[in-house]
From TrEMBL:
Residues that, per the record, bind substrate: R31, Q32, A33, G34, R35, D81, Y157, S212, H333
UniProt KW keywords: Cytoplasm, Decarboxylase, Lyase, Porphyrin biosynthesis
Residue ranges occupied by any Uroporphyrinogen decarboxylase (URO-D) domain in the UniProt entry: 26-35, 145-161
Cell compartments where the protein resides: Cytoplasm
Name the record gives this protein: Uroporphyrinogen decarboxylase
Gene field: hemE
Record note on quaternary structure: Homodimer.
Record site feature (Transition state stabilizer), residues: D81
Transmembrane portions of the chain: none
Species per Swiss-Prot/TrEMBL record: Undibacterium nitidum
EC number annotated for this UniProt entry: 4.1.1.37
Gene Ontology MF terms: uroporphyrinogen decarboxylase activity
Keyword Cytoplasm listed: yes
Catalytic activity entry: uroporphyrinogen III + 4 H(+) = coproporphyrinogen III + 4 CO2
Length: 361
């Protein structure tokens, strides 16, 4: 497939991921398009549901652009969800009002697991259509990030049928029938690699793997059941498109203990949650990867001056940027729906301003 897109006007985000020099620290926010924005809530109301937003490229484009029209963010992220992949595998994703995502047909028994297959050709075309339309609409404003869940994180939802605090079902399977779990993970890894490569073909300029539940695993289990499959994906990703490097970000929430190992799987950047000190993380991974993160999303509930202090402290903990290192500012997890958009304005302005000063000092 060949698309011609406008050249980038702001490539700061991509340069930071590739550990090249930048004039300031770029930022975007996980879940930057979402319920904390009144304009998102209005569009969602018109569309009827989250899935009807995600499945319609016009709506998906509209809500992807909304946060960019309000804040000087340095990247856009595709509006979709990690659970579209298991949905396309036939599990039947749905959202109940006021509750998280659920599956109509979770993987309840061995029979269901043996019958599982990668998504049929065409079943995720709506996502790729959205990517292309968003990229065209962006017109080179900022780069577009594509994303997927990690095989383990997807499996958590596929087996439990919904979010969970303890993951008893999937963890029981992991210890009792690792062969069954490995079958799911192998299929997920294959599906995700194909999915991300198709997003890249459709116009995604960077990709991110969300391993939201990797941190629930024991040491040893993490490497075997989560990290290994992310490595398989990274190995299969196309890393260049039309002469441009396509950086890949891996984010294990709760993965602070394993940073050195995550830095070794060949991704360009590591996402960090808020439990990690940025400077220490930088020292641990050296110049192998760029870092992305990691302000506690709850900081945005504080007063403007306190937000400025916390953001400045985070930038200072990373230290003075230098060639060979890269930092993309972000939250340590998705922005809360209860955040005031004004708090985000303070955050964005502070990151840009203070990080420029840092480079001059
Ligand atoms: O970051 C972005 O702005 C892009 C869009 C995006 C969404 N979900 C939209 C969404 C991304 C990158 C995701 C990733 C995602 N989805 C993850 C990984 C990141 C993480 O948070 O750990 C996970 C675990 C999911 C699964 C999921 N989808 C959950 C747990 C929920 C409910 C929680 C919530 O915030 O409501 C969703 C729904 C969802 N995905 C919403 C959005 C904007 C809210 C839906 C709504 O409008 O009601």
């Amino acid at each position: 497939m060949s698309n011609t897109f406008a050249p980038l006007k702001n490539d700061t985000f991509l340069r930071a991921l590739l550990r090249q020099e930048t004039e300031y620290t770029p930022l975007w926010l996980m879940r930057q398009a979402g319920r904390y924005l009144p304009e998102y809530r209005a569009t969602r109301k018109g569309a009827g549901s989250f899935m009807s937003l995600a499945k319609n490229p016009d709506f998906a484009t509209e809500v992807t652009i909304q946060p960019l029209d309000r804040f000087k963010l340095d990247a856009a992220i595709l509006f979709s969800d990690i659970l579209t992949v298991p949905d396309a595998m036939g599990l039947g994703l749905y959202f109940e009002e006021g509750e998280g995502p659920k599956f109509e047909r979770p993987l309840k028994d061995e029979k269901a697991i043996m019958a599982l297959e990668v998504p049929p050709e065409g079943s995720l075309q709506y996502v790729f259509d959205a990517v292309t339309q968003i990229r065209k609409t962006l017109d080179g404003r900022v780069p577009l990030i594509g994303f997927s869940g990690s095989p383990w994180t997807l499996a958590c939802y596929m087996v439990e049928g919904q979010g969970s605090r303890e993951f008893h079902g999937i963890k029981a399977m992991m210890y009792k029938r690792p062969d069954l779990l490995e079958r799911i993970l192998t299929l997920n890894a294959e599906a995700v690699a194909t999915y991300l490569n198709a997003q890249i073909d459709a116009g995604a300029q960077a990709v991110m793997i969300f391993d939201s539940w990797g941190g629930a695993l024991a040491d040893g289990a993490y490497q075997r059941f989560s990290l290994k499959y992310m490595q398989d994906i990274v190995n299969k990703l196309q890393r260049e498109k039309d002469g441009q490097r396509i950086p890949c970000i891996v984010f294990t929430k709760g993965g602070g203990l394993w940073l050195e190992q995550i830095a070794d799987i060949g991704a360009d950047a590591l996402g960090l949650d808020w439990t990690v000190n940025l400077g220490q993380a930088r020292a641990r991974v050296g110049d192998k990867v760029a870092l992305q993160g990691n302000l506690d999303p709850a900081v945005l509930f504080a007063e403007p001056e306190q937000i400025r202090q916390q953001v400045t402290a985070a930038l200072q903990s990373y230290g003075k940027p230098s060639a060979g290192h890269g930092h993309v500012f972000n939250l340590g997890h998705g922005i809360s729906q209860f955040t005031s958009p004004d708090a985000v304005t303070v955050l964005v302005e502070t990151v840009h301003e203070v990080s420029r000063q840092q480079r001059q000092a």
